[in-house]
Amino acid sequence: MSRRGQAGGNINQNVPPGSRKDLAEAAIYLYQHCGVHQPPTLRELSERLGELGHPVGEDSVSRYLNGSRVPGQQFIEHLYKLTAEASDTRSMRYSLQELQHLCEAAHKECRSVECANLRRRHTRTQVELEQARRELNSLLRAAGNRNAALNLTSSASDQGTHLPVPRRSGDRQVRQRTQLEARLLASRARELIEQQKTAGALLLLRESMRELSPLESTLYLAALRHEHPRLADEYVCIFVRERTDRSVIHFAAELHKRGMPEEAGAVLRAVIK
């Protein structure tokens, strides 16, 4: 009958067949035979390993035995030593050399899997970045077309052409359209974060920051603060890091002018840091 605190003999079902699983099976075998009459509890095993100069917590021991984590050579060697002391080494299923080779193969297998995962994540990130870049370019082209139309309107007004909207109302239209564009950019950045496409969101922040005027940046920050406060903080950090001191001071002044003194203070504090 098993005692409370003993490890079970089951390997995590997420561990695929291979060296890692084989090592977990070997570790379970050693654990089950390292006691005098029955396996020790996880606490007892942890204490005995500590006495050998290899302190390992109970949680780590449990993860090693179920295959959730791959132990180092030292853990396997000390566990082998405890098992050898409790039983006849001639009757043991594994030799120390076999265990060392198995441990080395398991670590190599994990590195291979991690590299494959990193390559997949890198490819996914590249796709996200390209998608974000295309979306940003599309938004900026649309903004440029609207600004060009407004410039033509202003030019016609200067030449005395009668227009239905006075110049001052036209300026208000510029602000309203800029606010709309800023909200669209902020909303898209928030969507990318929610889709766990952080790299794409940060690229959107960085490239939009390079393209926007101080006024547009101010409206964009306000929209970001409403959509996703953490992204707003990130935008401030990127702006301070990548723009000139003069641009940053101009940005802070524009924020203060637009009734956002706290944001202006945050920008200036970031400069001091």
Annotation, overall tally of beta strands: 0
- Contiguous helical run count: 11
User: How big is the Rg?
Assistant: 31 Å
Average pLDDT, all residues: 75
What can you see in these coordinates?
The model is unreliable at 148-174 (pLDDT under 50). The protein is built from 11 helices and no strands. It is 75% helix and 0% strand. It has 2 domains: 19-111; 172-272, no CATH class. It is elongated. 28% of the residues are buried. By secondary structure, the protein is mainly α.
What characteristics describe this protein?
273 residues; single chain; 11 helices; 2 domains; mainly alpha
Compact summary:
With 273 residues, the chain is mostly helical.
Annotate the secondary structure layout.
Blueprint: H1 19-32, H2 42-51, H3 58-66, H4 73-86, H5 96-158, H6 167-194, H7 198-211, H8 214-227, H9 229-242, H10 245-257, H11 261-272
Helix pairs in contact: 1-5, 2-3, 4-5, 5-6, 5-7, 6-7, 6-8, 7-9, 8-9, 8-10, 9-11, 10-11
